[in-house]
Amino acid sequence: MPLVDKGRILPNIRNRHPVAIELGCGNRKRDANAIGIDIRDFPCVDIIGDVVDVLKEIPDGEVDIVSSYHFLEHVADLDLLLGEVTRVMRVGGCFKVVAPHFSNPYYYSDPSHKNHFGLYTFSYHAHDRVFRRKVPHYNNNVFLSIEKVDLIFKSPPPFYFRHGVKRFIGVIFNSCRYMQEFYEENLSFIFPCYEIEYLLKRVD
Asked: What is the pLDDT of residues 154-169, one digit of tens each?
């Protein structure tokens, strides 16, 4: 599909500083200063088009901050997307990802979900100095480093009592890396986790 650049952002992206983009922002952009990219048109979307196609129009190393909220689980080719994300990011730039945790029972209700996310998902794609359990890389071009991973425990409205209980559980399981790893290996299907948040950095 053709791209629609509402404000002619792409030709002038070198003149913006800092450059922040939000992938698959939908009808609610979390960062008002970010360039919102989505395949569907909403008032907060700045560039309409397939996210990978839009990223291909951005020169190397022009982006300071990339964010994605409940979007990566819908992506058919995650490796392709991550390759484009790392290409457009400046060294030292930040990549924030929020996605459903694999134990979230609501994950399976949405037929458009294609990817699962857990503590070690980005360990296959990035340098991991966070977790003790080590996994292999699936490619040789590793340009991301994991800075932080948090398990988010909550319940959606109207389940407010459950929400309070789960927030308390989250404090315990996020208290240290050992507790996070212990939780995911042993307790994730007893106390389901709603979502997971990653903070990654672009490295040389």
From this structure: 998 888 889 999 999 9
Q: Where are the domains of the chain?
A: 4-151+196-202
| Residue 101 near residue 151 (C-beta atoms within 8 A) | yes
Count CA atoms within 13 Å of residue 89 on its CB side.
25
In this structure, which CATH number among 3.30.420.270, 3.30.750.24, 3.30.365.10, 3.40.50.150 belongs to the domain 4-151+196-202? 3.40.50.150
CA distances from 158 to 50, 163, 194 (A): 34, 9, 15
Element (H, E) at 93: strand 89-100
- Whole-model pTM over 0.90: yes
Query: What's the pLDDT at 137?
Result: 87
- Look up residue 63 and give its two tokens: 């982006």
Contacting residues for 150 by C-beta, under 8 A, at least 6 apart: 174, 196, 197
pLDDT by residue (tens digit) across 25-74?
999 999 999 999 999 999 999 999 999 999 999 999 999 999 999 999 99
The CA-based diameter of the chain, rounded to the nearest angstrom, is 50
